[in-house]
C-alpha cells in the first residue's frame, strides 16, 4: 500500500551484537540500506571514507549541523557523530528501509523528526552474557568498564521510549524477527493516510448517488 | 518473552469480510480464541447460545453492565451488544490471543481499558467492491442502504484511532498478515515491563561490584 521505506533505529547496550544482527539482515534480505554516519574522529586502519563513516573536520561537521543536513547528532569522547539526512531521505523515497545504528539520544532526536520511525532496542539473552560484554575479560581499565556500565544504566532508563525489544539470542533469528517487524510497518494507519482519505471521499460519493 | 496473549480488535465496514478473515485465522493457526458477545436481541434460526452469542434479557444485560462484567458494550436497533470480560481475561492469562469483532465505538472502549490492545481495521480491496457490499444488489430498501452508508462514513472518520489497516484482497492472505501482526506484539516494549525492570536491576548490581 505505502511505497515509502521505513526508518528503523537500532539501539542496544555496548557489545550486544547490534552490528552483527544488522549485517545478517542486510545479507539475507533485499530492500534495506544501512545509514553511514558522519564523524569528526580520525580514520582508523581498515576504515574507508563513505563506507564505515563519512570522515569530516569539525568545521565541516558544524556547517552540516547549521545547514540542517543531519537528522541527529551527538558528541562522545570529544568527537561528533551524526546521521546525514540526504542519504536517508533518498532511500526512503525509493522504498528502501533505512537502518540507523544509533544510541538512545539519537533515537529520541529521530523520533521527533520522524514520528513514524520504528525504534528497536536489542537486548542480551541473559544477565551473565550482558555482564561479560559490559565488563570485558578483566583486561580492561576499571575506568573504562565503569563508564560503560554507567552508559548502559542510562540506556536502560529510557527503553520505554522504544517501540519494540528484540532479544539477540542468535543473530540470524534476531535478524529474522527484525525483518518481520519492519514488514508489518506498511500496515500502520499512520503510513496509509492517502488510502484512508480516498476511502472517505468514495463513501461520500456513494452517499450522494 | 511475554506469555500473556494479545487482545486484538477487528473492525471494518459492513460486508468487508471480517468474519471470513477471522474464521480463516482460527482454522489455520493455533493459540487464538474468538470472543463471544452477549446480546439482548432474539436468537435467530441456526444460532446457538454460547456459540454465536450469549443471549440475555435486557435485565440480565443491565446487571452485567452494573457489575462491570463487560469490557465494552453498545446499542444498535434497540438491542444491546457487549463483550463479557471473564472469557477474555481467562484466555489472555492462558497465553491465548483473543479476537474481538466489534465496531469503532467498542474499539474505543477497549483501548481505554487495554492500552496494549491491537486495533486492526479491515479495508475492502477497492471502491467498487466496497460500493457493491454497502449498497447491495439493488434489492434492498433505500433507507437500509442509506443507514449503512452513514455508518460506514462514521467508521471511516475514526480509522486513525486504529493501529493497523489490512486490505482484505483474499481472506487467507489477509488472515496470514493478521497473524504476522499479532506475532510481533510480543516484542512491544509495553509488553515487556518485567524484562526491562530485571535488566535495570542487573546493571545496577554490576555497578556495585
Overall mean pLDDT score of chain A? 92
CATH T-level topology of the largest domain in chain A = Rossmann fold
Shape of chain A: globular
Largest protein-protein interface: A-B, 44 and 44 residues
Structural class assignment of chain A: alpha/beta
Reported for the largest beta sheet of chain A, the result is: 5 strands, parallel
Under CATH at level 1, the class of the largest domain in chain A stands as Alpha Beta
Q: What is the helix content of chain A?
A: 40-55%
**Radius of gyration of chain A, whole Å:** 20 Å
Oligomeric state of the chains present here: homodimer
Domain module count of chain A: 2
The fraction of residues assigned to DSSP E strands of chain A is: 15-25%
Number of helices of chain A: 8
Distance between the termini of chain A: 28 Å
What is the ordering of alpha helices and beta strands of chain A? EHEEEHEEHEHEHHEHH
**CATH superfamily placement of the largest domain in chain A:** P-loop containing nucleotide triphosphate hydrolases
List segments of chain A where confidence is low: pLDDT < 50 over at least 5 consecutive residues.
none
Q: From the coordinates shown, what is the CATH architecture of the largest domain in chain A?
A: 3-Layer(aba) Sandwich
Number of strand segments of chain A = 9
- Which strand order do you get reading across the main beta sheet of chain A? 2-7-1-8-9
Amino acid at each position: 500500500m505505502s511505497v515509502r521505506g521505513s526508518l528503523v533505529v537500532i539501539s542496544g547496550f555496548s557489545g550486544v551484537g547490534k552490528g552483527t544482527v544488522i549485517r545478517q539482515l542486510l545479507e539475507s534480505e533485499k530492500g534495506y540500506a544501512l545509514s553511514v554516519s558522519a564523524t569528526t574522529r580520525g580514520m582508523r586502519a581498515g576504515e574507508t571514507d563513505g563506507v564505515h563513516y563519512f570522515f569530516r573536520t569539525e568545521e565541516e561537521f558544524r556547517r552540516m549541523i547549521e545547514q540542517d543536513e543531519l537528522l541527529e547528532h551527538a558528541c562522545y569522547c570529544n568527537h561528533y557523530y551524526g546521521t546525514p539526512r540526504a542519504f536517508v531521505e533518498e532511500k526512503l523515497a525509493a522504498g528502501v528501509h533505512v537502518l540507523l545504528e544509533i544510541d538512545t539520544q539519537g533515537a529520541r532526536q529521530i523520533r521527533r523528526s520522524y514520528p513514524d520511525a520504528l525504534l528497536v532496542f536489542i537486548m542480551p539473552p541473559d544477565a551473565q552474557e550482558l555482564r561479560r560484554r559490559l565488563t570485558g575479560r578483566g583486561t580492561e581499565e576499571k575506568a573504562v568498564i565503569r563508564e560503560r556500565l554507567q552508559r548502559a544504566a542510562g540506556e536502560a532508563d529510557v527503553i520505554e521510549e522504544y517501540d519494540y525489544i528484540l532479544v539477540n539470542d542468535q543473530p540470524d533469528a534476531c535478524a529474522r524477527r527484525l525483518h518481520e517487524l519492519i514488514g508489518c510497518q506498511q500496515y500502520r494507519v499512520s503510513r496509509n493516510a492517502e488510502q484512508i482519505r480516498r476511502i472517505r471521499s468514495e463513501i461520500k460519493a456513494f452517499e450522494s448517488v
